[in-house]
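Reminder to self: tokens first, then the designed residues, so the page reads top to bottom the way the pipeline ran.
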């Protein structure tokens, strides 16, 4: 339990403000309820991640009464489905008191499950082999919502059973009209007993938070009810939960809610919290006076009303760039790089952010449709995405179909596994998901190179020294002076070619195979790829221009069998003495290569900073 926080301070203030109001009377039509202490007053708020804030008599037990109705309605829906339940109980508000003897004569059913007539019909639908089994299912359901064992106030049950003449009259009228089937006394006993379950304001807050959390109890993490039943429960709570006060409640407070004559109220703001209050004095409509004040105060202070103005949704796109602006970390030959500089505009990357829902993704669809020219590849990066609701899943699938019709190859990167599962249930193939943007960029680049017949060197071919990109402008005579300086070195897969921290005393020309530069992540066995080299690429040349002998800043490991031509810097002195003009040309060539690398890195940084 939190001892102090801004939220707790707020509900403490609300508790103190309304503790002394004397309006209302405790319920007396059930004799046992008349014994309630009118001074008791508890408030509790629980969030979908299980954080609870409570003040006052938040853990004092009282009978749940009519707050049981929406939960039993949800159980009936789970047992029979919407069509069967709707044939027995409607969902229209009555504008009448909770115990009114009034029915929908057009459809021959009670108006809704929140009034007594509808609640009795709903309880009659609960499946089970006899009274004990049926009630055990009801009690177990409430225990799963509350996250703990619950008990019955037998005295209240007997009091309700012996004085519930009006409810019996309602039930007999329903039986006579064909609204009820089966053993009427059993149905009534079940109804009286469900109303006699003992709960606390804290229990109510957890139950409400379970509804706010899409049916998952935030304390136990148990799935209690399916999302479709949650929607149905909250819908009838919003329209009918406060009886003939429901319209004004929704107008002023704007939260799905349910009250009970035991003094409790629950209220739900989907996705954000559940409220439970307890205060026995009731107004003339049967709602807790203090409970209404608490909910009204919270709604006004924090703008909890479902229809309060919300910020207009912004686009979910954090930034956009093409493959020509940002390339993969896989190094390319000069001719490949020149080709990709022209063709990589066909790769379009959208980095997404925040929560995805219909309005934010709708803006993305417009950007996709309006982008000119039409890309060949689209990468949607979701590593900064938060929640993705069902409408966003549907719209993402529509984007997939649009891409298919446009002959665009679509990839999703960085999305959480639970989002992948939801999309796979909508016919997304595994190959459409790639771990990160870099891997997706590399796939697209390889595809473009293959289409353009630019991948004529494989990792199993070995290049001659004179075939290296760096020596493209060197003559045969110049190569004759350079070649003796290099040594051919072989590496096996997973061998370290360079180790972080070692002295930088040589440069490497990759002749065969593939090697990757990586850093070991702190407090992890994982490694982060910085770049990958292919045949024809030089690496380690930066140390040529370092006055002092520096240390390597990352590991370079062989991914396959690797052959490198290795030049010890000390041997360059020979070239300086015998062929100074070749020595200068070699340094200039490596310098230009480094400048081009820096220019490309600068372009990428600028692109990513937009």
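Designed residues (610 positions):
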């Amino acid at each position: 339990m939190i001892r102090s926080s801004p939220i707790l301070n707020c509900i403490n203030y609300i508790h103190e403000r309304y503790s002394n109001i004397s309006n209302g009377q405790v319920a007396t039509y059930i004799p046992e309820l008349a014994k309630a202490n009118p001074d008791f007053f508890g408030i509790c708020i629980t969030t979908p991640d299980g954080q609870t804030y409570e003040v006052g008599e938040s853990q004092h037990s009282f009978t749940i009464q009519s707050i049981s109705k929406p939960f039993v309605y949800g159980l009936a829906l789970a047992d029979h489905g919407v069509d069967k339940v709707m044939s027995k109980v409607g969902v229209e508000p009555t504008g009448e008191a909770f115990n009114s003897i009034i029915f929908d004569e057009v459809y021959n059913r009670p108006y809704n499950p929140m009034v007594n007539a509808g609640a009795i019909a709903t309880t009659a639908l609960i499946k089970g082999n006899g009274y004990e089994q049926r009630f055990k299912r009801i009690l177990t359901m409430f225990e799963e919502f509350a996250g703990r064992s619950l008990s019955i106030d037998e005295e209240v049950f007997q009091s309700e059973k012996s004085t519930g003449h009006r409810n019996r009259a309602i039930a007999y009228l329903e039986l006579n009209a064909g609204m009820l089937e089966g053993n009427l006394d059993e149905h009534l006993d079940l109804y009286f007993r469900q109303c006699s379950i003992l709960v606390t304001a804290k229990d109510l807050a957890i139950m409400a938070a379970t509804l706010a959390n899409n049916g998952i109890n935030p304390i136990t993490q148990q799935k209690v009810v399916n999302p479709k039943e949650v929607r149905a429960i909250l819908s009838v709570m919003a329209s009918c939960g406060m009886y003939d006060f429901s319209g004004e409640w929704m107008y002023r407070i704007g939260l799905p809610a349910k009250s009970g004559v035991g003094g409790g109220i629950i209220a739900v703001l989907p996705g954000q919290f559940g409220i439970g209050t307890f205060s026995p004095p009731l107004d003339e409509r049967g709602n807790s006076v203090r409970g209404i004040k608490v909910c009204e105060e919270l709604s006004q202070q924090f703008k909890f009303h479902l229809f309060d103005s919300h910020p207009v949704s912004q686009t979910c796109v954090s930034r956009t760039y093409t493959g020509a602006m940002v390339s993969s970390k896989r190094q390319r030959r000069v001719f490949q790089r020149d080709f990709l500089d022209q063709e990589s505009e066909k790769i379009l990357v959208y980095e997404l952010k925040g929560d995805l829902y219909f309005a934010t993704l709708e803006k993305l669809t417009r950007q996709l449709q309006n982008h000119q020219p039409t890309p060949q590849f689209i990468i949607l990066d979701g590593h900064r995405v938060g929640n993705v609701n069902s409408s966003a899943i549907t719209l993402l699938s529509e984007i997939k179909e649009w891409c298919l019709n446009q002959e665009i190859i679509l990839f999703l990167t960085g999305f959480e596994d639970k989002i992948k599962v939801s999309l796979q249930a909508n016919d997304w193939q595994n190959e459409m998901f790639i771990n990160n943007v870099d891997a997706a960029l590399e796939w697209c680049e390889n595809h473009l190179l293959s289409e353009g017949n630019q991948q004529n060197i494989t990792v199993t071919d070995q290049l001659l020294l004179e075939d290296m990109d760096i020596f493209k402008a060197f003559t045969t005579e110049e190569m004759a002076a350079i070649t003796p300086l290099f040594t051919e070195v072989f590496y096996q897969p997973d061998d370290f070619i360079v180790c972080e921290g070692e002295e930088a005393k040589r440069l490497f020309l990759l002749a065969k195979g593939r090697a990757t530069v990586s850093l070991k992540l702190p407090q992890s066995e994982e490694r982060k790829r910085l770049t990958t080299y292919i045949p024809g690429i030089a690496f380690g040349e930066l140390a040529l221009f370092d006055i002092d002998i520096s240390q390597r800043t990352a590991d370079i490991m062989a991914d396959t069998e690797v052959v490198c031509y290795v030049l010890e810097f000390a041997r360059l002195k020979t070239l300086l003495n015998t062929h100074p003009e070749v020595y200068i040309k070699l340094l200039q060539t490596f310098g230009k290569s480094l400048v081009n690398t820096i220019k490309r890195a600068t372009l990428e940084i600028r692109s990513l900073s937009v």
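The mean pLDDT is 90.
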